[in-house]
Amino acid sequence: MGLKSTALKSLNAFPRAEEHLTQKTTSGAAVTICGLVLMLTLFIHELSFQLSTVIVHEMSVDVKRGQKLPIVINMTFPALPCAVLSLDAIDMSGKHEVDLDTNIWKIRVNKDGYILGSEYVSDLVEGEHTTDVAKEEAAAKKAMEDAGHIHHESHGEDAHGHFHEHKMMGDPQKVVKQIKKALEEREGCRIFGVLDVERVAGNFHISMHGLSIFVAQQVYASASDVNVSHVIHDLSFGPKYPGLHNPLDGTERILRDESGTFKYFLKIVPTEYSYLNGIVMPTNQFSVTEYFMSAKVYERNWPAVYFVYDLSPIAVNVREERRHIGHFFTRICAVLGGTFAVTGMLDRWVYRLVEFVSNSNKGKSVMR
């Protein structure tokens, strides 16, 4: 039994000296306090690091089908009144593919940005209607086509006659007077809302296409007189998740002495964000390339702001995770053990330095 006990004690990695052989010093106490403070600081840092959320990004092929693409719009046009602006959305097939329940608000603002009034505009984009009101709109459209008052705009492969329900539709002369009055008073417009379009390539644009050619030519002498300066407060394709940055938010494009058409080419990346509680939020990210084309006096096309978008076939999955508890204990052991070893070395060095200084002082006293 005694041999077994002796052999077991030989494996002890922590031999202890007898009490009368140990010496406690003031320098050792100071080093111990510094070590404890360092250990506590590092422990708190590691704990906060463990409790923080890890964001993991994964890519996969987008296999979604038959879902809508939400477009959140919030823009201000400081140089164009609401009576002039209209919103249109076209997909790659050339048809208007927008949910008829989509709502768009237009708010009149003055030159200082203060609200003057608002008008609610529902279903700005032309679609298939079956109601009696829709039939009346179709009849009005045909009458205006016969009169030559429909403005046709060509954009790439999409050439369409745009017709919109306009709040100021009526006597053209009256409409012209009201628009000119708004321009003289430097009235602007803020337009915002949500469009639900099909998940295919297309474009939406804000322009003067809602006006007839007669009204537009009475208000503006040429296309170069139309100022489409704008501020993009918010442009997104779904809800925002933590860390998401939409590159066009806060964009200002103010034209001083020229006019022209702005085109934003967007590449939309389908994204899903998974929270720690298991909730999955579908949304979209996008990148953007901007292009500006100056308007010429002889041009017939009115300046506009186009957003041409296409969808990426690659989807991104963003997931929140917690770090494994085993990693936390491993790091804590490394921090505490490393700090203990470093402070032990520091204590020995300080002790030897104090002993050296004390012996040097004693030697000088003896010589004297």
From TrEMBL:
Its main location: membrane. Residues 174-347 form the Endoplasmic reticulum vesicle transporter C-terminal domain. It is found in: Membrane. It comes from the Eukaryota. The keyword Kinase does not apply. Residues 8-97 form the Endoplasmic reticulum vesicle transporter N-terminal domain. It is a multi-pass membrane protein. Belongs to the ERGIC family. This is Endoplasmic reticulum vesicle transporter C-terminal domain-containing protein. It comes from Marchantia polymorpha subsp. ruderalis. The lineage of its organism: Eukaryota, Viridiplantae, Streptophyta, Embryophyta, Marchantiophyta.
